[in-house]
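quick one, 285 residues, struct below
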Amino acid sequence: MLVTLKQVLEPARQGRYCVPGFNCTEDVMVRTLLETAESLRTPIIMMAIESDLVGNGWTYLAGLIKLAGDHHDVPVVLHLDHATNVDVIKRAVDNGFTSVMIDGSVLPYEENVAITREVVDIASPHGISVEAELGHVGGANLAETAHAENVLTEPEEVERFVADTGIDALAVSIGTSHGVYRAEPVLNIERLDELNAVSKVPLVLHGGSGTPDDQVARAVRHGICKMNVYSDLRVAMGIGYKRTVERIDRPDPLPCDLVAPIRECLAETIRAKVELCGSAGKAGE
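---
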């Protein structure tokens, strides 16, 4: 059943667990994510980025998640991730997204507030949740052609930013990065404590892939309510693809046999993230 981000994160904050957010781009990912979530009785956040929605993606990907999400008896959030353009936000609203993220983290504070406030004014009348980012989670872009440095979130800005914008969730920078890590990250849990103490909304951790399990578990205990995962899903699909090549020995393989190893590896990764975040069995909340 489709719900908003606010509906799943407020119980998570009260219950001190985290709901994983998974980027998905294809029907194999959508089906595996939803069926695995239902088997674990976990809320799930299905995320799409603009590059995967170009052209027919708005119809095929968003349409599939809306239709299939309402079929499953667990809370499902349809979330637009890392939008930087207000027009893209408007299109997400028109296409039935239940949550959007506006990323003004590279902008000066006042400009970040302005664009975030504009998005809240667009989304809130439709009952759509808004996530924003303060500080900046760096790392590699999807093409691995550019790399940005982290800028840690400043506690003294958090309370003012939330009040000035009216957001429902805040992504913070405490040491994670986007993409595959080249060195093991060290999360700044002390900074997280300071942020959580002053934030009136649930906190989000971007760059969850590759972060050591013990550090993720600590982050959840200290206030993280949503963790974004994408690179780890791509790694799992790559492993599954290799297994497919090893297993298939007929010239006319059945489609179900082609995708079965990919789905198996995806489901294994999804289960591990859900259990790590502590959201298994929380669908009823």
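The CA atoms of residues 155 and 194 lie 6 Å apart.
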